Amino acid sequence: MRELGICKKTGRVYEGSSGSGIPVEGRSNLFPITFHELNIDAPTHSVDGFPPLLFREDSFDSITKIRRGRVVKLSTETQPKVWRVHDQIRKDLKLVSWASGAAQETELFTYQRSPLNELKGLSKFPNVIIGEAPHHSIWSLLSIEKQYDGALLLTLKAVRSLGVVPDVNFNKYSAPARKELKRALEQVEVSANKLSPKDTVDRCRDALSIVFGDLANNLTVDLGQGISKYLERNKVKDSKRDGQDLISKNADIVRVLHARGKPNESHKHSTRPIDEEDANLALNCLWFVLTELDAR
Q1: How far is CA 201 from the centre of its chain?
Q2: Mean per-residue pLDDT, 220-243
Q3: DSSP string computed for 44-74
Q4: Is residue 208 within 8 Å of residue 225, measured between CB atoms?
Q5: Smaller CB count within 10 Å for the chain: N or C?
Q6: d(Cα 112, Cα 114) in Å, to the nearest integer?
Q7: pLDDT tens for residues 146-188?
Q8: For residue 15, what are the β-bridge partners?
């Protein structure tokens, strides 16, 4: 496949070359794609609603959160482009003489292979954004492999796990906390799949503040105070564990990560910026606390 054609009227997708092709059977998973802080050679703006770059998904593993596919770019030729196709479903298309025979004629918004030359020689690939705001997600580009026909196969992995919050028995929480915790966990999901690492850490801290505030019977306390009251109530005094158990330790990790995200704290202690691994750590700590408390 050297060209991809999309019919705006019907949504039908065709593949071929030199303006001729056949319909793609089955569902075509095509998503707008952008590369974080990197300009790929392509038109700078959408044309009649069609984005400059598309990711054509070949496969997706819901367990590993790995997706593979190819990138195509909107052709710089006049859009839409005239194609000759053979499509038994499209009875509305005009039949014209073509290549010692006949074919149907239609106008399609046309995409070509993207060589992704901008990625050559990079020591670290950039993250990519699949979809368009506000409905988008962030993916890490793991590898690029050239196939036998010259097409580039991209392997992507979800930057942060989709569906990061475990099932929670909200009946274990007080009525005032229940509504707030549901809202906070929804924001965790949004930030984990769409926003920055710092936002994710902050939203995890918000959720844990509600959890430990509810354990302390005081939703106005901050996370640090909530952890202290939890330790006092449970009489955790094992010096080998620094006075904490795993539930409080995991919550305390998120508390410290949240503090590191503040510019003054980062400058004071010369710490690095919060990155994706920190966000994953915060999500795992939140998951652990919620799961452990749910099991009690």
Answers
A1: 16
A2: 78
A3: SS-BTTB-SEEEEEEEEETTTTEEEEEEEEE
A4: no
A5: C
A6: 6
A7: 998 888 999 998 876 555 678 888 999 999 999 999 999 989 9
A8: 4, 22
The pLDDT value given to residue 242 = 57
Backbone CA torsion sign across 275, 152, 78, 4: negative
Output DSSP code: residue 106.
Answer: E
Structure tokens at 278: 């920190």
3-class DSSP assignment, residue 5? strand
Given a contact cutoff of 8 angstroms between Cβ atoms, the answer to whether 105 and 91 are in contact is no
H/E stretch holding 136 reads strand 135-146
The length of the chain, given as a count of residues: 296
Q: Which pLDDT value is given to residue 254?
A: 95
Q: Quick one: how many helices (H) and strands (E) in the chain? A: 6, 12
Tokens of 76: 């710089």
Task: List for the chain the helix, strand, coil content (%; round to 5).
Answer: 35, 30, 35
Q: What separation in angstroms does the CA of 217 have from each of 45, 173, 212, 221, 296? A: 53, 10, 8, 9, 18
99: left (phi over 0), alpha (psi -120 to 50) or beta: left
Cis amide bond preceding 51, omega within 30: no
Instruction: Give the CA distances from residue 34 to residues 31, 52, 55, 131, 146, in Å, rounded to whole numbers and listed in that order.
Output: 10, 9, 9, 8, 20
Of 193, 139, 124, 135, give the one whose Cα is nearest residue 164: 193
Nearest Cα to 59, choosing from 73, 69, 71? 69
- The residue among 4, 162, 16, 142 whose CA lies nearest residue 71 is 4
Full-model pTM: 0.63
